[in-house]
Specification:
Elements lengths: L15 H17 L14 E2 L10 E6 L5 E5 L2 H14 L6 H9 L10 H5 L6 H5 L15 H13 L4 E6 L5 H13 L6 E2 L2 E2 L5
Parallel strand pairs: 1-6, 2-4, 4-5
Antiparallel strand pairs: 2-3
Helix pairs in contact: 2-3, 2-6
Length: 204
């Protein structure tokens, strides 16, 4: 008896629905993701059990490394450029369009005002390397506001009373540095700010 041949049917799977789902997922994550900024220095924040979320808009970020160097930044490039431009005008520092564009792309600024122009003359990839060993001075001169206070006041004037201040200090930063910085904020009647920490795990 001869073998019965079974007719083979081609298997075809419609991949269109899968492609649609992948595109939707990709679009969702692109629109909802928050990109990590390339901060001037690496800071290991102390741990805490607080789960209060820091606002994402209209925030002046104060970054303090473990050696006590202070860096400031705004959350959007446009506000960062405006802040740098205003500070340069106050201190008589001439900046060109190319320098302002570099300031716009920088997440933080942490140099004395007399070095601001040199800082913005660096290549974009070397900005953080240049400022890492400097920091914004907190010493007042002739009884006037320190450069740190002037940066904060300029940001407050430009962004209004709704602007929040968020301080992110390294867990190894000397206490006297934090105390001095907070004292300068208090002298300006800036008594409310967020302290950024990392969430303590159950093992800690």
């Amino acid at each position: 008896m001869g073998k019965v041949k079974i007719k083979k049917a081609d298997v075809w799977i419609d991949m269109t629905p899968m492609s649609d789902v992948m595109v939707l997922l990709l679009t969702f994550f692109m629109l909802t993701s928050t990109f990590v900024k390339n901060e001037a220095v690496r800071v290991n924040a102390p741990s805490s059990v607080s789960e209060i979320k820091v606002p994402e808009e209209n925030v002046l970020s104060v970054l303090v490394d473990k050696t006590g160097k202070i860096f400031l930044g705004m959350e959007t490039p446009g506000k960062m450029e405006a802040l740098i431009s205003d500070m340069a005008a106050q201190y008589g520092v001439a900046l060109n369009a190319k320098q302002l564009e570099k300031g716009r792309s920088s997440a933080n600024v942490g140099v004395p005002m007399q070095e601001l122009s040199d800082f913005l003359n660096q290549d974009v990839e070397k900005l953080n390397e240049y400022q890492a060993s400097r920091g914004i001075p907190t010493d007042s001169i002739d009884g006037k506001m320190s450069e740190f206070q002037t940066w904060v006041e300029s940001a407050r004037t430009a962004n209004g009373s709704e602007m929040k201040i968020a301080i992110k200090a390294d867990q190894d930063t000397p206490y006297k540095v934090i105390k001095k910085m907070m004292s300068e904020l208090q002298d300006m009647s800036e008594n409310r700010y967020f302290l950024i920490t990392s969430l303590k795990s159950a093992e800690d």
